[in-house]
Amino acid sequence: MTAEPLRSREEWLASLPRIYAAAGCLLRDESGRILIVKAGYREHWQFPGGTIDLGEGPVECAERELAEETGIVQEAGDLLAISWTHPSGELDHPAQHFLFDFGTVPDGTPVTVPAGELDTHRWAPVEEALELLGPARSARLRAALAAAADGRVRIVTTHVSGF
Fold first, then answer.
1. Structure confidence by residue, pLDDT tens digits, 79-102
2. Residues 11-24: pLDDT tens digits?
3. SS3 sequence, 26-76?
4. What domains are there in the chain, each with its CATH number?
5. Where does the pLDDT of residue 140 fall: very low under 50, low under 70, confident under 90, or very high at 90 and above?
6. Fewer Cβ atoms within 10 Å of its own Cβ: the N or the C terminal residue of the chain?
């Protein structure tokens, strides 16, 4: 058996898989409802959040996206869940999604969604949110709620894209 010749660092790096990375926000109101948003170009509702920009970390992304998508300015709390999605027909690379706890805001907190990016928002009870978020995001929500209850970050691995 002959060993493969060593590759250069550049060749090795080029051979590694790339990932899509995003961060989202779990924000609740005093009644325990979860803030979800709806983009017209997606079948399911989603958490406020989005893709991580170059030079930005997951926390910065989540805080920026919450402000951009809802008008709410709030600091990220604990990391609750990390979702790893394997490549699929929908995504040619793996995707990683960080979901952060953004705490609780008073009932009736105003939400302003950006025209052209999102259609609407909803403060949904947990069971309704689980239904509206679809399979990938509802798995994230279950994991995040369990993590918020016991303080242990959850990892969700799936083949179902929610990116």
1. 999 999 998 877 788 999 999 999
2. 988 888 889 999 99
3. EEEECCCCEEEEECCCCCCCECCEEECCCCCCHHHHHHHHHHHHHCCCCCC
4. 19-158 (3.90.79.10)
5. very high
6. N
